[in-house]
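note to self: the first set is below, dont mix up w the second
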Amino acid sequence: MSVDATAPGGLIDRHVAFVAALRGAGLPVSLAESLDATQAMAAIDLRHREQLRAAYAAAVVKRAPHRATFDRLFDLWWPPAIGDGEPAYDDTTGDEAPDDADPTDNETLRQLLREALRDVLLSDDDEAIRRLARQAVTGLGRADTQPGRQSWFTYRVLRAMSPETLLASLLESVLAGQERGGLAEKVARQMLAERIRKFEEAVEAEVRRRLAEDRGVDNISKTAVKPLIDQVDFLRASRDEIAELRRTVYPIARRLATRLTAKRRLGRSGRLDVRRTVRASLSSGGVPLTTIHKPHKPHKPELVVLCDVSGSVAAFAHFTVLLAFALREQFARVRVFAFVDTCDEVTRFFEHGDDVVDALARMSREADVVWFDGHSDYGHSFDVFNQKWSDAITPKTSLLILGDARNNYRAQSVAALRSIARHARHAYWLNPEPRQYWGSGDSAASAYGEVMPMIECRNAAQLQEFVEGILPV
């Protein structure tokens, strides 16, 4: 491996910068793991890039969801080629695909590349797909963005190659006279769609590599990776990210339930057992030298979740329903209340194990959460809850309120919230807004924060931090 080809300043400088990029993307790479990676580099053949990838991954990747971020950053910091495709590592198999096109004739080049793509998709050779993607980006992906400056674009390559339009002819070749419309065609379509997806991803990776060469790998690496799922803001989460959050939230919910229901760890638990104490005192002439206490009865936990489902926190509402789903399985009794400008109990939507999306759809249709104009009114919602369901809060109850506390300059009803919170065993407010915005504009977070602990909870990582910070009492 040529160090100059991969990093100005040498191999160690590139290693240090790569580890910093991993940390910046949210991967927890310790100093010891960084040193382990350098020791692994001494044990492998650095001319083989995949060995280097495997060595790094073994040293610094601790969780499966982090692997995609690691691979994308690895491809930027340790690229498979330089420039128009000169190999930076001696790990290719076979010869480079021939390039018979005249670079000045884009239409001829496009047709030749499409023919090559058809052959590559039929052969299912991953290395050939990457080489062809490199050629396609070199020939079709460059464009002038301003006088004297060029850049690289994925959409130009994919629009010119149109890999999805090859599907019909590819199916003809794969099925080779087999009956159409059956299982064989379904399997073939799925297989070819997967190969086309690989080619599209290879083009995207090649464009990122060329941009990194032109603009600097530091600049591109900051925008090339999506945030880790536990760093995604609940308020901005997409539908796919919400689905992925589901797998993250469930184990956190179990830990939250454990923290909220932990029994008191006291030297003497339970009430005094008079009968056993008196009986034990007979041996000392009726003097109770040792008091005996009844065993502490296991706490039967109950949970009340009160969540804002207004449009301003729609994505966060998905999270709150998701959290309520997960917590339902950990507590003896869970009651869920939703509100916009009035409050309604929505526990019934969770009782039959419906899907989260179905529960949200039913809530939007059937729940009585709009009273006046459909804009958030925390004060009125707290008043309604206090009037109708005050008996839901008992000394056995843990209370979670989830919302941004944006009250549209309406009455805050702090007294109603105080009445609700003081009867609960625990009371916490999770706020999806950054802390620096609390109390600004129509935010009532400062007033409500004086009644009960308010915790910034913008993503799963902060939810995890909140759970770990709860002390069993």
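second set (the one i keep forgetting abt)
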Amino acid sequence: MKLIRESLEKLSPSCVDIEDEGHLHIGHAGAKSGGHFKLNIVSESFKDKTTIERHRIIYKCLGDLMNTEIHAISIKAKYNDEA
């Protein structure tokens, strides 16, 4: 989770909450290729962005982690006034 948090720092988030949900996916074939996470993040970077645009910004920040450390991620991304 440290790598995820560090990758998201470029968004200058006011809040980042990462929950490891790997225990819910024990035995799932994809669980071997990376973890399952739930992400709640608040950043002014998301202001005036659609949900899809916000997710794309996050995926770009996570980069190669999406192919190594992360198998699945559930995202809730808001800007400060929404939080």
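remember for set 2: The radius of gyration is 13 Å.
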